[in-house]
Amino acid sequence: MKKLLLISFLCAFSAIAVLSQTKGQITLEKKRYYLNDKQLDNNELKTLLKSDPESAASYKKATSNYTAAIALIGVGTAFTIYAAVNPPKEDDGPLPGLINDEEMSKWMVPIYCAGGCIIASIPFILSGKKNFKKSISIYNSKHTTGLNNNLKIELGLTHNGVGITSHF
């Protein structure tokens, strides 16, 4: 009888270890993120990546880099719109539509600034992508499928007295 109880006890705890539910990994397919063959929207992906502290730190770096890139692109767009709204004035020369060099150089300043801002945003975009991929890989490394090796069996206090507690 003791052997039967011992064997059933060991089988039950090994089944808990092997069959414990773990989340699948986040995969990228056709520019969409999936978890267990279910497409994730931005909010679901955000909450999943923020659920793990290490993944959340990398995700925070990615979002701050993306924010800086979007701000620089916005400033570049504003300079471009300013240049489009305020075109250079035509010269009052013999041919209509001619623009003198001084007026043209004044008009090109916002265009150059816009190009500089947009080019300056590229490193932020690349860094944001790198940190976002790193965040997903950290999440995936913590949430593997299959055997869950985080099983703890302890002798401790329960609601009914002293007993064996299992944490997984």
The tally of domains stands at 1
Q: Strand order within the widest sheet? A: 1-2-3
Continuous helix count: 4
| Beta-strand percentage range | 5-15%
Q: How would you sum up the global shape?
A: rod-shaped
Q: CA-to-CA gap between the ends?
A: 28 Å
Overall pLDDT level: 81
Number of strands: 5
Helix content: 55-70%
**Run of helices and strands:** HEEEHHHEE
What is the chains' assembly state? single chain
Uncertain segments are 17-21
Biggest sheet layout: 3 strands, antiparallel
Give the helix/strand class: alpha+beta
- Mind telling me the C-alpha Rg? 30 Å
Account of the 3D structure:
Helix content is 61%, strand content 14%. The longest helix has 42 residues. Helix 3 runs antiparallel to helix 4. The chain has one domain.
